[in-house]
Amino acid sequence: MKKFIIANWKCNPIKAKEGEQILSSLKKTVNTENEVVICPPSVFLSHFLSLFSDIFSFGGQDCFFEEKGAYTGEISPKMLQDIGCKYVIIGHSERRTLFGETDKSINHKINEILNSTKLTPILCIGENREDRVKNKTYSILEKQITNALKSIAIEKAKKIIIAYEPIWAIGTGVYATKEEIKEAKNNIVKILCDIYNKPLINKIKIIYGGSVDPKNISFILSKNDANMDGILIGRISLKPKNFSLIANWK
To answer: Which of 67, 165, 180, 183 is catalytic?
Structure first.
């Protein structure tokens, strides 16, 4: 089954030429059996799309919850769609913790995306280490998902990708175990079923992010293990050799 391999480049690289070199290298080594999505800094999106949209899909790292207007510095979902993006990351833990992103603004963004564009929102959720130690993981995920999907009908919600990214595993080198990832997926499915009063929400894809590398990619994606629908990765996606090993998983 085709998996989502989503690369969040965050605030990297500094120069467009560096990004071109990374993508040129990946173009030679990454196959297209999986859906490979590149989310670079927004200033590079149009340029990279003009050069590499034949092999990769592209997405924004964030967007605003209004279509247009006097919102200095913001980028609307329609702008992303207009230049050729297919995806947009919403609610990443760094947006929540560093920039004060709230569940309410995340819900507004998802509503705007689903109501005004054909973009696929990638909703990021996850608990920190303290919450996990205090056994609050389920309640944190329930709150984040419930608030993010408030007033969103199931027909539209089916388009969303949910990315479980435990904060304690993002960029730390600390691996979530197969059992922890499976537990998170089961919890997310249960929460979705409770929200929509359905026995199973098959069409809402659930992916994982947090210190993913070639060593653990197999048990994250394998049907016989965690069986996630894909992955969201950060800094390792800037390393063509390692990213190719991950992207070519089957």
So the answer is: 165
Q: Give me 159's structure tokens.
A: 């388009």
Q: Would residue 92 show up in a list of annotated catalytic residues for this protein? A: yes
Whether 165 is a known active-site residue: answer: yes
* Range 50-66 burial, b when 16+ CB lie within 10 A, else e: eebeeebbbbbbbbbbb
Separation CA 124–CA 207 (nearest Å): 9
**Residue written as token pair 């929460």:** 191
State the virtual CA torsion across 53, 58, 63, 68 in degrees, nearest 10.
20
- Phi then psi for residue 22, to 5 deg, are -65, -50
Q: Domains of the chain (ranges plus CATH)?
A: 4-247 (3.20.20.70)
Contacts of 197 (CB under 8 A, 6+ apart): none
- Distance from C-alpha of 136 to C-alpha of 126, rounded to nearest angstrom: 11
pLDDT, averaged per 10 consecutive residues of the chain (250 residues), comes to 95 98 97 94 98 97 97 98 98 96 97 98 96 95 97 93 93 84 94 82 86 92 93 95 94
What's the Cα-to-Cα distance from 178 to each of 167, 219, 228, 243, rounded to whole Å? Answer: 16, 6, 11, 21
